[in-house]
Design goal:
single chain, 76% helix, transmembrane, transmembrane helix, membrane, Phosphate transport regulator, coiled coil
Length: 116
């Protein structure tokens, strides 16, 4: 299974390098359209190879998806955290109750009850 993963990653790397080599033409990315930039008197642009735009878009999309999913799962994490705290509280209460129950018992019998 490990070799299949390595083969897959190798093929993926070759494909990404081929896409990058095929799209080396320079493109200009502008922050604002020309009319709006003239109105606001602010223009920012940069010239980058086209494959940087492709891979950057994929990366930004992944990051947005990860953040969106993290925010969406907040309620599930909060509920799990509350259940974990409740379980710890109940375990402490059980130990305290068992200790009160076993305070007059012989130590050996109390240990045997705890292990069962």
């Amino acid at each position: 299974m490990r070799y299949i993963r390595y083969v897959f990653l190798g093929v993926l790397a070759v494909l990404l390098i081929a896409v990058a080599l095929a799209n080396r033409n320079m493109v200009t990315l502008s922050l604002l359209p020309e009319e709006m930039a003239a109105l606001l008197q602010f223009q920012w642009s940069v010239s980058v190879p086209l494959f940087i735009v492709f891979f950057g878009g994929i990366l930004v999309g992944l990051m947005i998806g990860f953040v969106w999913e993290w925010l969406r799962e907040h309620k599930h994490r909060a509920e799990a955290r509350a259940r974990k705290a409740e379980a710890r509280r109940l375990e402490r209460e059980l130990k305290r109750t068992q200790a009160e129950r076993d305070k007059d018992k012989d130590e050996v019998l109390a240990i045997l009850d705890q292990s069962a």
